[in-house]
Structures are given as C-alpha cells and as structure tokens.
Amino acid sequence: QVQLVESGGGLVQPGGSLRLSCAASEIAFSIYNMGWYRQAPGKERELVAQITRGGSTNYADSVKGRFTISRDNAKNTVYLQMNSLKPEDTAVYYCNGYISAVGYNYWGQGTQVTVSS
Which residues touch 16 (CB under 8 Å, ≥6 apart)? Predict the structure, then answer.
C-alpha cells in the first residue's frame, strides 16, 4: 500500500523557519513527480511547490524566494524548507506524488503549520 507520511510541522513565530519532510513507501519514488500543497481554514487546497523526477522545480508566487523544495531519491523523501514564514503561511501542508501519464496520484495525511506570535 502506497504511503506518503509528512513530518516537521508545528508552531513557529513570524520570520522563523521549518523544514517539512515527506517519506514515501511502496512506490518507485525516483520516477514520481512530487509536490507540496496547503489548505488554510475556509480556503481551497493550493499548490505550494513541485519538483519533477528530473529535478525541475516550480513555486507559487506567494512563496518564491522563501521556500525551497528538494528531494533525496536514496531516502525516498521530499523536503520543503520554509524560511521567513508569515502568518498567512498557516495551513495544513500535504505531500503529493503523481505520474500524470498513468493517472497515479497519491496524498499524505497532512501536517499542520502554524505561524503566530
């Protein structure tokens, strides 16, 4: 059974940093495109960052220059380094793994990030 397990969320003050991790099991991780999404209360889930199997990245405008997505295929893990956090970054962050061509699309259970003083 495919599993994506996020960790690293928590409470941080504005301007602080957090690193989220997403460990994948039961998938050929290196061939998956991976992404981080977030959903704030009362809002729709939105894309934060993506990294292709080839290492290309893209980011939501709201996080460019502050967040960095990376992957370690040897550890079957994707990371999201979040710096200069703002209260509006508060949300549940979800890990996603997909291969569009064959319709594979998996989600983690989410990890809460709260930015507050």
Answer: 85, 115
